[in-house]
Specification:
CATH topology: Glutaredoxin
Number of strands: 10
CATH superfamily: Glutaredoxin
Helix content: 25-40%
Largest sheet: 8 strands, mixed
Distance between the termini: 42 Å
Order of helices and strands: HEEEEHEHEHEEEHE
Oligomer: single chain
Number of domains: 1
Length: 205
């Protein structure tokens, strides 16, 4: 009986551990307040995209997403809407596909170009070739959002997590986590919710 109790306790601890700690990223990823390093990744139009390309930006919405995850597909229109709302205010969207095309052929660069054209993406959609950038950020899901604020010290991580609280139905969203965070950042106010759990598909490396 003692062994059963111990095993039960261990199982409970593991279960609780899955829902505790950082909601945000992997163990080696960014936390709120960290400085995000720049990257240079290939966009679907063939150009290379870096944060440093945006000299007048007040911040960035770096969103790890892909073609094949149903959650990412459900959020595509909302990501377009975020770019439409905030790019003119100095906070553009940069979408990064972190998946390894060898494991997910539907996330190949060629398929990314088709998807971006079909959905009229207004933002860069770049491939994390070699899967080097998403581990730096600590992204674990698609979609997974990192709001950065441009400062004299660098691009500071201000929010990490989900776009909103309803991955299935945009019309039933109660909490717009990303919009609330960007609005507060632009207003110079405290961001009340800085971490949420990203809901989506695991990244295929």
């Amino acid at each position: 009986m003692k062994i059963l109790k111990i095993l039960g306790l261990l199982a409970l601890m593991v279960s609780l551990g899955a829902f505790s700690g950082k909601f945000t990223s992997g163990e080696d990823g960014y936390s709120i307040g960290d400085i995000a390093t720049d990257f240079s990744l290939k966009n679907v139009d063939g150009s290379m995209v870096s944060l440093s390309d945006y000299g007048e930006a007040k911040g960035f919405l770096v969103i790890f997403t892909c073609n094949t995850c149903p959650y990412s597909v459900a959020y595509e229109d909302r990501i377009n809407a975020l770019d439409a709302k905030y790019k003119s205010k100095g906070v553009p969207v940069i979408a990064i596909n972190p998946n390894n095309p060898a494991k997910k052929p539907g996330d190949s660069f060629a398929k990314m170009k088709i998807r971006a054209a079909n959905k009229d993406f207004t933002f860069p959609y770049v491939l994390d070739e070699g899967q080097k950038i998403y581990p730096q950020y600590g992204a674990t899901r698609t979609p997974h959002v990192f709001l950065l604020e441009s400062t004299s010290q660098g691009n500071v991580v201000k929010y990490i997590g989900a776009i909103d609280d309803n991955s299935h139905n945009a019309s039933n969203v109660d909490e717009k986590y990303v919009e609330n965070a960007v609005d507060a950042m632009l207003a110079g106010k405290e961001i009340k919710v800085t971490n949420t759990r990203a809901i989506g598909c695991s990244i295929k490396a």
